[in-house]
Amino acid sequence: MHRPLQDLLAGLTLPLDTDVRLLEQAVTHPSYAAEHPDRHHYERLEFLGDAVLKQLVAEWLYETYPEDAEGLLSKVLHRMVSNAVLAEVAAGLDLASYMRFGRGEERTGGRERPSSAASAFEAVVGALQLTLGPGAVRVLVRRLLADRLEIIHGAPDADNPKVVLAEWCQRRHGCLPEYQTLQEVMVSASQHMFEVEVRLHGRVLGRGEGGSRRAAEQAAARRALEGLDRSQAQRRPPRRTRTGRLQTP
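^ that's the sequence the OP posted. Answer follows.
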């Protein structure tokens, strides 16, 4: 079951009377369209939204950092529009709860896949570009990505652990990791503690704790990366010294 799109408009602080016909397409997974031939899925809008995002973020970086060289701007742009970052934005909007999936995709956990939500977010940007125009979309994109711009620009090579882990998973396995909140404990009247674990294909990669869900996810990703570093070092084959003897790392 999916939530009404008026809730999504409210979450995006857009007028509730916005035409939602293209938004309906933007949240329609190909598996749903396959079961409902009268519906169009989001892939064409995703193509448009991807291009729009890259252009808007490139302009934003050009204006914000006039002293940066092209290489640095390209690196930051790549991070800003990566699937990992867009999946985080989509999660913040709870975009998956608005999506329409086919029965088979729903049964196999499609609604929990960050990659699907990231694709839908790009499609939403494309839909709003056509519905509201570039000015409104520019304001929306900058607002949704504002808290990530300074972080990513400050550390374009060693970005936050969630992005690094997501890029590794995407590169090696063609999918994004999934985060699950294990528990939320109220430490005091104004302080909570979250415990989160990150999984890839059902395998737990790491667990972490933090005073917010995002901090706990970052801690879990950091533990996962530490574990991957150790496991890769253990699997690294021995190399030969100049004398021909094998030397382990």
